[in-house]
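Chapter review: from sequence to fold.
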Amino acid sequence: MDFQNGIASRFPGNPVFAQAGKALAAARKAGHLVVYVRVAFRPDFAEVSPANKAFGKIASRAGSMSETETATAVIDQLAPQQGDVVVVKRRFSAFAGSDLEMVLRAQGITDLVISGVSTSGVVLSTIRQAADLDYRLTVLEDACADGDEEVHRVLMEKVFPRQADVTSVEEWMSAQ
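The token string follows.
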């Protein structure tokens, strides 16, 4: 989730991208549906309220995160392949303003394996909402990153285990 140019550029050289690539390859090999989630807005940012502290700032930089901008495209290293689904969200959670739940329900999916940048943004918000929607969750700790390593650690060790299984990409792959 949010492995897109405008966000990934904040994590130069981070191994999270290689780990996410390994997980993607394993998921495809196992026949799992791969769903990408990216955050983007209409060119006029009609869905962004000035009252929204986080996204209101983005809207002031007209065009920077619109649906057609390079900043919102998935990074080349993790580019979607034929058969993958790409969902556009409008807030932090992958479910907010997207058709993600419709896609998952239509495919009969009840278990989600989650990775993304950032841990305290899209990952946290999506886990909370997915847990409330009764999905079984696995978080790939080393395929997630945050600008604050301590926040990442606390979420992975103390918060996420209440609602998800937290594991490494290697451990998850060996269980496939």
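Two observations follow directly from the output. Residues 16-29 form the longest helix (14 residues). Strands lie at 35-39, 85-89, 111-117, 136-145, 165-167.
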